[in-house]
Amino acid sequence: MTERLWSTDVTIRFGHCDPASIVYFASHFDIINAVIEDWFIGALGLPYYDLVGKRHIGLGYAHAACDFHLPARMGDVLTYSVKVEKVGNKSLPLRVEARRGGKEILAATLIIVSTDLAKGGAIALPDDIRAAALAYLEKTA
């Protein structure tokens, strides 16, 4: 049975906005990155800090793109959801959507690539990340 995608609510703050009083596009990417960190913890059960800070596994973006459909403003509460598109050998393609009251604000595509921070270069997804991502993909497909 398909379960709903993991999601989290984010309140848009003053610091996210530009002089036009809407969320600055770069702020959207900062928010999305925080959502991904929370998703690793909340949906995959993998403490993001431990992966990067203790195990020295890089989880950087080889690709990041975003389509902005509607503006977001200070005080808005956006609901972000994360979908695993597939689980690659070294990569984890994701789709992140943000909605406000059912209306799509943005849709982002991200490709996370796992790297060895000490040696540099891409590495195979660690077994625990692979297993957790595959389990999430299976239950949300």
Keywords:
single chain; 141 residues; alpha+beta; Thiol Ester Dehydrase, Chain A; 3 helices; 5 strands; 28% helix
The shape, in one word, is globular
Average pLDDT number: 96
CATH second-level architecture: Roll
Number of extended strands: 5
Alpha-carbon distance between the two ends:
9 Å
What is the helical fraction, as a range of percent?
A: 25-40%
Compute the number of structural domains: 1
- Supply Rg: 15 Å
Largest sheet: 5 strands, antiparallel
Number of helices: 3
Strand line-up of the largest beta sheet:
1-3-4-5-2
H and E string: EHHEEEEH
Low-pLDDT runs of 5+ residues are: none
Q: Report the CATH superfamily.
A: Hotdog Thioesterase
Structural class call reads: alpha+beta
The CATH topology turns out to be: Thiol Ester Dehydrase, Chain A
Portion of residues in beta strands equals: 25-35%
